[in-house]
Amino acid sequence: MKKIMVAFILLILAGPLSAQAHTGLSSSNPAEGEKISAPLEEITLVFETQIEAGSTMVLTGAGQTFTLDEIMVSGDTLQGKLAETQLPNGAYAIQWTIIGADGHPIKGEVGFEVAMEIDSSEAAAEESPIEEDIPVVTETPMEETANSETAAQPDSSEGSMMSTILISILAIAIAGIAYKVFKMKK
Fold it and tell me: What pLDDT was estimated at residue 151?
């Protein structure tokens, strides 16, 4: 009888843990932290499991949001084509929101940098004696801003872990009560 009760308790405890699993990002193009020097035509995000329709992404950087055409969901992949392939140099973030196989919405971000070579004729036109007298104002890089915003957002896995613990305690209590009732009937 004790073996059956132990097996029952383990089965109850295993259920909530598998239900709390969420889909994570497996790979991306461009990759996290990648420095690209060629025009970017398409963004591809691959997740650890299937994702649902309604999943989306946005590209931000250089103080603006860039349009993605033809955002497609196919199995575990989210793809979008850029309307503008010539992005200005700087830090960018792909902000994605997906609906995982478990039905929960999940958000994330992939940061990368564009570092295109400047044509020498463009560089000469940009450098002029007048511009040398203008003071240079530095801004916080987008990557640092994105990291601080990400740090301020609560982690959804903390709530999932707490609910798993509470469900597990409740299941053990129910199993203990059932065992005592069954033992009293004998």
Answer: 40
